[in-house]
Specification:
Strand content: 5-15%
Number of helices: 5
Structural class: mainly alpha
Shape: rod-shaped
Number of strands: 4
Strand order of the largest sheet: 1-2
Largest sheet: 2 strands, antiparallel
Helix content: 55-70%
Distance between the termini: 78 Å
Radius of gyration: 25 Å
Amino acid sequence: MGEINQMKIFKFLIVIPVITLIIIFQTSLQNRYLMATDIRDGETIFRNVCAGCHVRGGLVVLKGSKSLKLSDLEKRGIADLNSITKIANDGIGFMKGYKNKLKDGEDKVLAQWIIQNAERGWE
């Protein structure tokens, strides 16, 4: 009878907490993976949010609007991550902001992608 009680105590004090920790750890990893995949990549964001007006390598559909070519970004003093991020959220000129369409962190991902493509000449 003493061995049975010791075994129950062992299960209660050791096995159950270990199993609980394993379950919590696995759930935590799954949530991190889901959160990481919730953020779209820059190209996908651009295609879904920006490409309606900025087609064919950052050129603009509307006459008189600004392009996303590096030389144009530099002329306007917005060829940096912070400026493009702010514009993506708040808009500029005729362009409206898209903070309601961008998930947390996607504004920076988009800005980075735009700058990289501008530096490559929108190949």
